[in-house]
Amino acid sequence: MKNNKIIANIVKYAVLLLYTVIALFPLYWLVTTSFKPPLEVFSTQPLGTFVPSFENYKVVLFNDMFPKYLWNSVIISLITVLITLPVGSLAGYAFARFKIKNKDNWFFMVLTTRMAPPVAFAVPLYLLMVRFGLVDTYVGLIAIYIFMNLAFCIWLTRGFFEEIPPDVEEAAMIDGCSRLQAFWKVTVPLTAGGLIATGVLMFIFTWNEFFFASILTQSIAKPFTVHLTSFFGSKRILWGELAAASTIGSLIPIIFAIVMRRYLVRGLTMGAVK
């Protein structure tokens, strides 16, 4: 029996190790390729058996428009989260606490905006942006991302607020707080981990978005995800520069998630243990 348990653990950890290697291999390839000189991009030599070169990073950071478009991604992602999180959390709180006629039907209608594939909204949203002159503007792209993330924010925050007993807010209102004050002073601190987790996830979704950005931006508001396609030429692909730009673009959300990991774990596990 003991030997069977040991064998089962060995198999389990071997499978987990294999999965980890497979999952991390693309990131490993990306990072190593970013340090390879152009003539060694297709070399199969692992990192450590060739002399690393920072030439790709120099080209991307100093001889390319990549920093500008990376900054565009930072601005657009942060503003999207800062607008969507308060609005979505208030809507999620309303769905969690108030008696609304046909509430489940309204909630389902909100979620349908997230269920449908983005291409289903491409033509009407593009025509709308053209009509109001918002193509290739920060305002237009941020509005699209708010629309994309709002349903997700409402759905997630509603679950967090439902985990908080209404008695806590009622006690605060008995002590003289209004409904809004009870929400801000009592409910928000109790669900801070969940709200931060929601904000981090929306930041990552917005940061990685490509489809709408590719059809709604040209140069002014273009994020770095769309700019990555400029490394694809008609006759060759600049793999080194592409890998360097992708590595830099991946670092920001990774660092952001690492810094917020404590809130992510606490927020995403709210309600998991009764």
UniProtKB/TrEMBL annotation:
Residues 70-260 form the ABC transmembrane type-1 domain. The keyword Transmembrane helix applies. InterPro entries: BP-dep_ABC_trans_perm, MetI-like, MetI-like_sf. Belongs to the binding-protein-dependent transport system permease family. It is a multi-pass membrane protein. GO terms for cellular component: plasma membrane. The chain crosses the membrane at residues 12-31, 69-94, 106-127, 139-161, 182-207, 237-260. The keyword Cell membrane applies. Pfam families: BPD_transp_1. This is Binding-protein-dependent transport systems inner membrane component. It is found in: Cell membrane. One of its GO terms (biological process) is transmembrane transport. SUPFAM superfamilies: MetI-like. Keywords: Cell membrane, Membrane, Transmembrane, Transmembrane helix, Transport. The lineage of its organism: Bacteria, Bacillati, Bacillota, Clostridia, Eubacteriales. PROSITE patterns: ABC_TM1 (PS50928).
